[in-house]
Amino acid sequence: MLIYHKEVQSEKELLEVYPIIKQLRPHLDETAFLTLVSKAQASENYKLFALCNDDMPVALAGFLPRVSLSQGVHVWVADLITCKKHRSKGYGKQLLRIVEKWAREHGCCTVALSSGTARKRAHRFYEEKMDYKKASYLYRKTLS
């Protein structure tokens, strides 16, 4: 069993990981996914990393380097998912550690993320296994 990570960039690679991201973002069809990732990669330096087990993607992390007055230079994890069939095998922890390493190597002082209020298992993972602290609430308003 060979575990490795890679940055997902080509359309072919994006289509290979789409079934996993669809588990996290069910509202996105393939076309919307490809369009959004392409735009985010070009304009916001969005990175999408896949953790692979024997050439099969099993977990994904999409993140962006950011600067804000509240957090300084940091990485914002926008998307983090382990394929349902491969959960509780340590893949999420391994992938988040890879994001943290990338952040350190690129001068970031923190890694931040948000998690939906209903995702209790994810919250336990972040707090108990990854030592992340709940720092705030995220509020959102959809504009019409």
UniProtKB/TrEMBL annotation:
One of its GO terms (molecular function) is acyltransferase activity, transferring groups other than amino-acyl groups. Keywords: Transferase. Gene3D superfamilies: 3.40.630.30. It holds the Pfam family Acetyltransf_1. Residues 1-144 form the N-acetyltransferase domain. This is Acetyltransferase. It comes from Bacillus glycinifermentans.
